[in-house]
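Whiteboard transcription, Tuesday session. T.W. wrote the structure tokens on the left side:
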């Protein structure tokens, strides 16, 4: 399975407006950083906009990292992790 499952082509203001309308509430966007151009092939190690449970929009790291390992693990089997 490939880790490249996302594309991000809306601009920052559109995403914030869509979420505000869907949630009918204010969002905290203080930690939200957004890429300057559309990304159609987002890979692990990229940052993505994520809506947290506190209605906070943040940029979080996409991937699975095991403490002590220097690289991102992708396509890992349950028996190997």
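and on the right, the sequence the group agreed on:
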């Amino acid at each position: 399975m490939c880790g490249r499952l996302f594309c991000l082509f809306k601009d920052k203001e559109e995403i914030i407006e869509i979420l505000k309308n869907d949630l009918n509430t204010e969002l905290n966007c203080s930690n939200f950083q957004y890429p300057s151009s559309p990304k159609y092939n987002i890979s692990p190690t990229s940052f993505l906009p994520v809506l947290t449970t506190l209605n906070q929009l943040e940029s979080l790291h996409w991937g699975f990292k095991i403490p002590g390992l220097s690289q991102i693990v992708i396509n890992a089997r349950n028996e190997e992790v």
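Someone added at the bottom: The longest helix spans residues 12-23.
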